[in-house]
Amino acid sequence: MDFQTLCVLGLGYIGLPTASTFATHGLRVIGVDVDRHVVDVLRNGEVHIHEPGLRTLVQAAIHSGNLVVSEVPEAADAFVIAVPTPLSEGADKQADLSYVIAASESIVPYIQPGNLVVLESTSPPRTTLDVVAPILERSGLQAGSDFHLAYTPERVLPGQILRELIENARVIGGIDRASAEAGRDLYAIFVRGEILLTDATTAEMVKLMENTYRDINIAVANEFARVADRLGVDIWEAIELANRHPRIDILRPGPGVGGHCISIDPWFLVQTAPDLTPITQQARQTNDDQPAYVVNLVNQTLDGLSGRRIAALGLAYKSDVDDLRESPAIEVARLLASEGAKVRTYEPFDPGAVVPGAEPAASLEMALQDVEAVILLVDHQTFRELDPQQVKGMMSGHVAIDTHGVWDRAAWDSAGFELHVLGVGGENA
Ligand code: SAJ
Description:
Elements: E1 5-9, H1 15-24, E2 28-32, H2 36-43, H3 54-63, E3 67-70, E4 78-81, H4 98-107, E5 116-119, H5 127-136, E6 148-151, H6 161-167, E7 170-174, H7 177-187, E8 195-199, H8 200-231, H9 235-242, H10 265-272, H11 278-302, E9 309-313, H12 328-338, E10 342-346, E11 359-360, H13 364-368, E12 373-376, H14 381-384, H15 388-394, E13 399-402, H16 409-414, E14 418-421
Helix pairs in contact: 1-3, 4-5, 8-10, 8-11, 10-11, 11-12
The protein binds ligand SAJ.
């Protein structure tokens, strides 16, 4: 199929890079977002998302005239739906499909025979068939026979989105073969990785399996760290040694699993088959419990939390991103404060970020001033490279806690610190 025009619904972490990349590859793209603020920001030449290289790409796309931003869809050869699918409010951990439903409804008046519609939002299996297709068919056209319909998961890593968007292998699942092939023709415009065709439900399942697999692997790393703590074994050395086995690749323990993908997507699999997913559910539980485990470690290290003055370094959900969503670092800081500690937080990518009960600091120096202990919550590059001598000079106490196993122990020891590392012995037994 040949595509001239594309309408992308949702200009977030995935939709904006995708729309811009199609535009810089020659398609005429209408980028749609229902948030007026997002549309205004983009029209003013700004970008509301922090991602390396994205600003330049978006500006190039807009200046070329190929990317136009709007609050409402328009007719096009193809439509890509890239809206959020958060967890619903409440305890039942179900996917909230309201944005997918609204986006699907919004294009009903514009669909024409021969069009392609692609869902990219992470969704429970069968969403394309059972939710999106019936809505689009309100147009009077039949999915499959009158228009193509496909699901393709995005697989890009925040921080490396622009490169991975182009280079990663892309799975495209059609509701029929012609739909999958139409999807391939669209994404082949910029994807340099392999394009693999399947059916829509398999493609939905693939995405959930990928992130569930990663969640389970991080959970087992966290479990190993707890066992190592009890035994007085150094988990970091043990993992390094185990990973010398040619078929073993144990991930890294840490303060927990955050972000809007891995901490959420496994629940979509659980919702589909709760009775068949005990390992998935246990992994979620283990990773969700990890911030409390870290707080317990701090409690034991400091012999109580009430009134203790602690600097918490990092609030983002992982290193070198400014994204605070579902961040385990925030949960650790919040729990420390709720247990009576006087917590000062410092997040270099978002210095104004506020954690309930804690005080945000505008600089490292302000965070460390007069504290007894410093805890590394996010392994941002700038924190990995901290000079322990300098840190020591800024604070009054001498306790350091490393929840990522990245600080050079000899250097911190010789700077006069009492350094405690997650997964290294004893304190939490
Ligand atoms: N984490 C650990 N230990 C590790 C690796 C990660 O504790 O060894 C933690 C991180 O600190 C973070 C969380 O896990 O809190 C998730 O980080 P991540 O870098 O593993 O993944 P995300 O959420 O940024 O992106 C994931 C990616 N999925 C996989 O690697 C299988 C990405 O490819 C997906 O596109 C993305 O989810 C998504 O949008 O679904």
